[in-house]
Amino acid sequence: MCRSCGSIIGAGQQNCAVCGTSVNSNPAPARQVDSETLRFARAVLERPYKFTIILLIANIFVFLLMWNSSGMTGAALWEFPNEVLWTYGAKLNSSISGQHQWWRLVTPMFLHVNLPHLLINMYSLWVVGPYVEKLYGSSKFVFFWVLTGIAGVLASFLTVRPNLAAGPGRFIFKDYDALSAGASGALFGLVGVLFVFGIKYRRELPEGFKRAFGTGLLPMIMLNLFIGYMGRGFIDNSAHLGGLICGGVLALAVDYRRPGENSGIATVWKVLRLISIAIVVVSFSQVVHHFRDPLPAVVVSENAPVRNEKTDRFVAYAKSMNEAQEAFYQVLKDRDATNVESAVQALKSGPVLDPKAGELSERLQALVIKAQALTTNLKDQPATVIKKARAEEHQLEVDFMAWSKEYNQWLKSNAKDYGMVEVTEAASPE
């Protein structure tokens, strides 16, 4: 029988099959636990992480307010209306740059678009937040959270670049402006802090902790970046990378509280914590102040997409095409070519949305220019000349009808991709 756990030991066995204790009368001394690891673990585990809990409560509280504003329906838990997201301070480039609503660089880190979004981010905060707060202290933790959160939103703001959102650039750059919210940027910032922390202090960290920080985080970082790549149509990867890089830079510049060090907080970090909290409070006070503001035209009903830069480019393209068609009709009906040159110039300077859209624009230019030639006065011209002109006019109408059919088909196939719910077909000449 084992003298340690009381389990029965079979004949000839040298060690207990349950606890591993040697059956020899003079067993080898047990392996000593690394005292440095114990000291480090004890110091970290005993430190408080109250601001991690405060942030959890704050995010949940804001979510409940948004749910209340959404009617507290079950459907709202799966997708808040665009109106609610915008009213509570979600990021929208047109509101930041056009209306100077700078607080939208801060408030999105406390907003979530639905319940799964909240649960995933809050679980991540519960796992990662205590490590950072215990290692660096509450004041630095609050500063890290706010700064990396702002960095994530700012990165999202700066990467709405339609001209770069093609090929590999689609991972970071976006070709349209849309409402964006979530604590992911700040969470990636905390991961960036722990990643650089583990590398920076790899020589002084106990062996057991090297697997939890530094390069030990690489699999998790790479997995999340892969998920971001697969979901690049709805995941804001630029915000994630902005927070991650900012967190890494902060860890490079800022020291941490080593085990056994005085827990006193430097005055400068107390001040930075107060400034960080003040920025958040002032930002949400702006949300309250503007809570009843009329919704901008770009924020539409919950079932329709948000008007954005991509939509604006589509509208500009469609407008130039409509003006050219009007000029074409004016030539056919009234023999008036007054608006032909301006229409052609608008087509040339208008946005090209895709190769087919560009081809349709070029063909319409050619049709309008050909129509311009029909304004020549045929009076007193030989019958053969008049007959030829009439034949050309008929062929022009046939060509325009074929073009119009293709253009209408393109509109039906692509309008929704550019945020247009309903598109009127191009009219045929009477």
Which terms summarize this structure?
mainly alpha, elongated, disordered C terminus
Description:
This protein has helices at residues 35-45, 50-69, 74-78, 82-87, 93-99, 115-136, 138-158, 184-200, 207-210, 218-230, 237-253, 267-289, 309-334, 340-349, 355-373, 383-414. The chain is mostly helical and 430 residues long. The chain has 16 helices and no strands.
Report a brief summary of the structure.
This protein has 430 residues and is mainly α. The protein is built from 16 helices and no strands. The chain is elongated, with a radius of gyration of 33 Å.
Based on secondary structure, the structural category is mainly alpha
**pLDDT average, as an integer?**
79
Tell me the helix content.
55-70%
Q: Major sheet: size, sense and barrel closure?
A: none
Question: What topology does this entry show?
Answer:
Layout: H1 35-45, H2 50-69, H3 74-78, H4 82-87, H5 93-99, H6 115-136, H7 138-158, H8 184-200, H9 207-210, H10 218-230, H11 237-253, H12 267-289, H13 309-334, H14 340-349, H15 355-373, H16 383-414
